[in-house]
Amino acid sequence: MDVVIYHNPDCGTSRNTLAMIRNAGIEPHVIEYLKCPPSRTMLEHLITRMGITPQVLLREKGTPYAKLGLGDPSLSNEALLDAMMAHPILINRPIVVLDLLPPQKAAFSKEDGEQVVDAQCNRTRSA
Hints:
Belongs to the ArsC family. This protein has 127 residues and is an alpha+beta fold. 29% of the residues lie in helices and 10% in strands.
């Protein structure tokens, strides 16, 4: 299985997601998207594959979202993509569907100590 994660090492959710992928026995291809953002074509492709709109992928916290007025519902998808290309920090945290990963190989707890996978490798909650 080939797994690519657009990763932000400063984001706890991103670090936890990367750790869960590795806990499933997969070493993903890690792209630090703030240093090497996806091309516009790739970003459009990812949005299409996820079945979402660009608005859903926008990150508000710790970004220029409000300053740029990106909450305006009249903005086109193209305008939102332009903003994400100009400011990659606007691309929200990694999105991974855990059901697509192989079973976890061991118990797993997030950085904050919350258990996500128990000792029998069963998911205890949605991550």
